[in-house]
Amino acid sequence: MEPEAELIARSKKGDGKSFSSLVARYEDRIFNLAHKVCAGMPAEAEDVYQETFLTAFKKMPHFREDSNLGTWLYRIASNLCWMRFRKKRGEPVVPLLDHPHYRDEDGEPGSGPIFRDWSDGPEELSRKKALREAVEAALGDLPVDYRLVVVLRDIQGLSSEETAQVMKLSVAAVKSRLHRGRLFLRDRLDKVAVS
């Protein structure tokens, strides 16, 4: 695998093949971010996913390597999500499950799901589906500023410092939003477990 720094250097000069290699490294993370943050708006999530890489390609010559490429891409995707939420603020949002992102064994676009669990029986699959739907619904109800922090920290695995850099917040603000977001989710999921 080629070092990322070399791919970035060639991408800055307009090398589409090198940029495609960078996209392949980050596309799943940006796809997941867009679909988790834009819960209830699958068409918007698809647009954010595609527009993130289009924007990155256009702005690649101006990418300063003082930050991580992933952080920069998350920042672009986060800004695009915010812009779409501002436009849709007055419209009701109904959370829907996002479509699975399909890949074959080599990581290429394929016809099967990324994760297959053939060992589970129908009851276990049904239970997992219900849990996933409950989590997706709770995440969709979470206010977008908390949702972005929860997705970046708990789903994408960024550190508090990286999340603060992406969100242009202090680390304390990230921790506060993460705590409030987790409490909100716990409250929603506790209500589901009781019913």
Features:
195 residues; mainly alpha; 8 helices; globular
Question: In words, what does this structure look like?
Answer:
This protein is mainly α. The N and C termini lie far apart (49 Å). Helix 7 (160-167) crosses helix 8 (171-194). The protein has 8 helices and no strands. The chain is 68% helix and 0% strand. The longest helix is centred in the last third of the chain and has 24 residues, at 171-194.
Radius of gyration using CA atoms only: 18 Å
> What best-fitting shape do the alpha-carbon axes yield?
globular
**Low-confidence region ranges:** 92-101, 113-118
Instruction: Give average pLDDT, whole number.
Output: 80
The description of the largest β-sheet is: none
- As a percent range, the share of helical residues equals 55-70%
Question: Topology of this structure?
Answer:
Layout: H1 4-12, H2 16-37, H3 42-59, H4 69-88, H5 122-141, H6 144-155, H7 160-167, H8 171-194
In short:
This protein is an all-alpha fold.
